[in-house]
Amino acid sequence: MTEEQRDLLCKARESLEAARLLRDSGHVGFAASRAYYSMLYVAEAFLLGKELAFSKHSAVHAAFARHFCKTGAVPPKFHRYLEVGMVTRHAGDYGKGRRVTPEEAAEQIAHAEEFLELGVRLIGPLATQGGRHE
């Protein structure tokens, strides 16, 4: 694991923690948004392992699908998680036309947890505060 990958996985973990805090305080739209970013950071960490980086979310989604999901390196559901997560993030951040439900936020957080676990398993463990690894 490179330092950049580790930094992205740490950002993913922090974003997931923020999503949980936001959900618990009733800010479900913003919770869904932070959960999406957690998944995006993990996808970016995967891509960095192939020396690929993109500035657009759609480019990250497409490259992650092409290099990891379509090759069988990771289950295709993780690409769906990114796609649905981005749509839900837009609703949470911009709220035009609809609001994120508590159930949607919970689902996005569960997907982000699963995404981070996948990243830690396939890219490498993260040090925790007590020096242990995840």
What does it look like?
This protein has helices spanning about 5-25, 30-50, 55-70, 75-95, 100-120. With about 130 residues, it is mainly alpha-helical. It has one domain (about 5-120): Four Helix Bundle (Hemerythrin (Met), subunit A), CATH 1.20.120. The longest helix is centred in the N-terminal third of the chain and has 22 residues, at about 5-25. About 70% of the residues lie in helices and about 0% in strands. Mean pLDDT is about 90; it is low at about 130-134. The chain is built from five helices and no strands. α1 (about 5-25) runs antiparallel to α5 (about 100-120).
What's the CATH superfamily, by name? Nucleotidyltransferases  domain 2
Can you count the beta strands? 0
| Ends distance | 14 Å
Low-confidence stretches: 129-134
How helical, in percent, are the residues?
A: over 70%
Task: Characterize the largest beta sheet: strand count, sense, and whether it forms a barrel.
Answer: none
Summarize it:
By secondary structure, this protein is mainly α. Helices cover 71% and strands 0% of the residues. The chain is built from five helices and no strands.
What attributes does this structure have?
mainly alpha; 5 helices; disordered C terminus; 134 residues; Four Helix Bundle (Hemerythrin (Met), subunit A)
